[in-house]
Amino acid sequence: MKKLTSGGGWQAIWYTLKKSRQMGGLARLWQAMRSKNACKTCALGMGGQKGGMVNEAGRFPEVCKKSLQAMAADMQGGIQPEFWRTYSTTQLQKFSPRELESCGRLTQPVILERGKQYYHAIHWDAALARIASKLRSIRPDESFWYFSGRSSNEAGFLLQLFARIYGTNNVNNCSFYCHQASGVGMASSLGTGTATVTLDDVEHADLVFLIGGNPPSNHPRLMTTLAHIRNRGGAVIVINPVVELGLVNFKVPSSPWSLLFGSEIATHYVQPHIGGDLALLAGIAKRIDELGAQNEPFLREHCQGYESWLANLRALPWAEIQAKSGVGPEDINAIAERYAASKRVVFAWTMGITHHAHGVANVQAIANLALMRGMVGRPGAGLLPIRGHSNVQGIGSMGVTPKLRDAILQSLEREYGVQLPTTPGLDTLGCMEGAHAGRLKFGLCLGGNLYGSNPDARFAAESLSRLDQLVYLSTTLNTGHAHGLAAETIILPVLARDEEPQPTTQESMFNYIRLSEGGVRRHEGPRSEVQVIAELAARTLDEPLPASESSTPNTAAQSLLDWQSMQDTGKIREAIAKVVPGFEQLATIDQTKKEFQLPGRTFHEAKFPTPDGRAILHIHELPELAGGPGELRLMTVRSEGQFNTVVYEEEDIYRGQERRDVILLHPSDLERLGLAPDQRVTVRSEIGTMTGILARPYPEIRAGNALMYYPEANVLVPRTADPLSKTPAFKSVLIKVEAPVMLASNR
Ligand SMILES: Nc1nc2c(c(=O)[nH]1)N[C@H]1C(S)=C(S)[C@@H](COP(=O)(O)OP(=O)(O)OC[C@H]3O[C@@H](n4cnc5c(=O)[nH]c(N)nc54)[C@H](O)[C@@H]3O)O[C@H]1N2
Ligand SMILES: Nc1nc2c(c(=O)[nH]1)N[C@H]1C(S)=C(S)[C@@H](COP(=O)(O)OP(=O)(O)OC[C@H]3O[C@@H](n4cnc5c(=O)[nH]c(N)nc54)[C@H](O)[C@@H]3O)O[C@H]1N2
Ligand SMILES: [Mo]
Predict the structure, then answer these.
(1) In terms of residue numbers, what domain contains 715?
(2) Contacts of 694 (CB under 8 A, 6+ apart)
(3) Model's pTM, two decimal places?
(4) For a disulfide at 360, which of 126, 185, 511, 695, Cβ 3.0-4.6 Å?
(5) Domain final position from 340, 360, 386
């Protein structure tokens, strides 16, 4: 496949035209894209009341191929009843992620019964009755509730409320596989777990650090902002073991000049080894100290632990920093000098930072470096975890976490006259392990693909197979519906955000609350998420539950909650406004149409919500770079043509790959291993093997490291997780690459 020379550009525009032809014309797609709904893909935040393709600064048009793909997927035809009679689960398991996605929209509830090979249709009533009766037959702590980040605040709030009143804290979201390390790390450093900046702050920065992310593919709209910063003479420092094409040069589709000539993005591009960031960040800090460029008054006044942190940094040998990061002194010095010369600096990062066994430490090290020059708590500067799903942050704010914030818990108990459970809830990996051990019997997934997003795919399938019942609320088919099967599996089809009959809300990664108007349903059959949740809750809880051994008395039946009435999203918003601090304005948002910035999240002053108002500097031991001789470090990443476990296109245009069953290696590694380009190899890790993979030379990757595509590569990823965030090390898998042994023939 021909390699491109820049990201974005005409590619994105051609793609729009091609997609629109498939979707019944430009007018139809345009109308869908311009509707007043928050964009469905990443959490950068587009759309809402300003109209589709408009960002938080009100700029239009912000086109992104990903949002087109997501829209086109929701505009597909419906899966026909014959489908379920035609394909057995064994056949569905042979479908690729892309084939499953392109089967069409789910339109009727289906069930796969114990021992059967085929899903079959089931009436909504029968399906809901079956689920409620299962829930009423088990102890609440034998259930778990997994949420993806695509659903609305309203659905998120309602489902977690249901689960807790039912009696369990086993409530968690995809964040445990995503940005949990950012939340935990930032909270431990600053007392807050979300971005400290707004989009406007980023636009005014004179330096952005972009660490471990690939925004040309995954957050294309951020590229416009990065191009602006460069245009104004600012700098962008990229830290990534792979040279990602679009981070070198990107053609911003909404700018004619950039479209023709391209915009340079990175001013410095440094390639540490996978997992080398902690050492590199320490090295940059050490060099800042050597240059005397730290902000002493800020550190003394606004930070705790400065002296011991500095002493530790000074004692850290340069040789160790270089060995453990893979970065030499010139690069470290160049970055430090640029940082020292900048006045407004934003630190942005993504999965290259969080998907490690030391993800939280990585995030704390970023905070340390920012605090060192007083770059948190002033306009144009701060920390920006670039979030994944379009409403993953909102889902978290709504209490979709094992531990409910005390303020929310107390208000809920007061408001509804209930007593909520106090037994500790499980994180996502904890649920999979609990299921494997037979301690869990029931799971419900509000969107997402719990199977596909898990490490150790074989273990994940086994875990889910040990459940009595697993319920999916989904829009389209994914690998979970084929491989993540319990004794009984039920799929309930739901409406997409822009088909909701009532308004819903979402929260962007800049802590901005958007209102989505909903719209016309594209298919008969799917139901609104809140309708399904409210009905299920009513069926489960309206009669007193049988006496259970669970730690909380189940007082739901006597509670003040009228579940059926909670199908009204306005009523849910009123409840949220009452119990979730900061969301007061949500109560009337459907009348006022006033979208808003959550109070207290953005920091333009150095006052931190920690007990003494000061930020905390953390000291770390630098981990050894993983791997022995003969081993490579593998990262598992997204291609340009996918959204998480959903694959829209087999090709990865920016990396010049036309297929997904490849492993990208530095040419020197290929040579060292005695492999020819495109030779079929076996890739082994501690837990799994993939055969028939094409080994390809990829000069853009730092030697000693390898790249493969997620979710397929999850058969190789062990369950090793960061003890603090419980996030698996998806980006740091030790592997061996071997050519199959040829048997001597014709003897
Ligand atoms: N098109 C599209 N958009 C998406 C998604 C999608 O799948 N497709 N997913 C959404 C979601 S949920 C998320 S979380 C985000 C993900 O957004 P990203 O984090 O950008 O996604 P990944 O493909 O996982 O890429 C991680 C990047 O980290 C680099 N990397 C790997 N290991 C290391 C390391 O040790 N150190 C450093 N410094 N870098 C490393 C890789 O080279 C790669 O460039 O995107 C969101 N947006
Ligand atoms: N090896 C490896 N594994 C990883 C990662 C990695 O980089 N490498 N990344 C991790 C990350 S960052 C994440 S966030 C997780 C992704 O984890 P998930 O969020 O669990 O997975 P998705 O693939 O985004 O889920 C897609 C499905 O959501 C459903 N869906 C779409 N829209 C809606 C909607 O409006 N409502 C409902 N109810 N359902 C909807 C569709 O059925 C679709 O198939 O994977 C993680 N796993
Ligand atoms: Mo994510």
Answers:
(1) 632-738
(2) 659, 661, 662, 663, 678, 679, 680, 681
(3) 0.94
(4) 185
(5) 386
The model's pLDDT over 317-373, given as tens digits with 9 standing for 90+, comes to: 999 999 999 999 999 999 999 999 999 999 999 999 999 999 999 999 999 999 999
118, 144 contact by CB (below 8 A) = no
Distance in angstroms (rounded) separating the CA atoms of residues 283 and 288: 9
Q: Return the ligand number nearest the Cα of 685.
A: 2
Total domain count for the chain? 4
Instruction: Name the closest-CA residue to atom 35, ligand 2.
Output: 496
Residue nearest to atom 25 of ligand 2 (CA): 448
**How far away, in angstroms, is 644 Cα from ligand 2 center?**
5
Q: Any idea what the CATH number is for the domain that residue 146 is in?
A: 3.40.50.740
| Cβ of residue 708 lying under 6 Å from some atom of ligand 1 | no
Residues 6+ apart with CB under 8 A from 67: 33, 39, 40, 41, 46, 53
Ligand nearest to the CA of 642: 1
User: Domain for residue 237, yes or no?
Assistant: yes
Rounded to an integer, the average pLDDT of 141-149 is 96
Pocket test for ligand 1, best of 278, 449, 638 (most atoms within 8 A of CB): 638
Ligand nearest to the CA of 730: 2
pLDDT tens-digit series, residues 605-655: 899 999 999 999 999 999 999 888 899 999 999 998 899 999 988 999 899
Residues 253 and 114 in one domain: no
Of 30-39, 168-177, 584-593, 659-668, minimum mean pLDDT range: 30-39
Q: Whose CA is nearest to atom 17 of ligand 2?
A: 453
pLDDT level of residue 305 (50, 70, 90 thresholds): very high
| Pocket lining: 727 vs ligand 1, CB cutoff 6 Å | no
Alpha carbon distance 222, 209 (integer Å): 13
Closest residue by Cα to atom 33, ligand 1, is 352
Q: Which two tokens stand for residue 738?
A: 């071997």
Structure tokens at 649: 């296109």
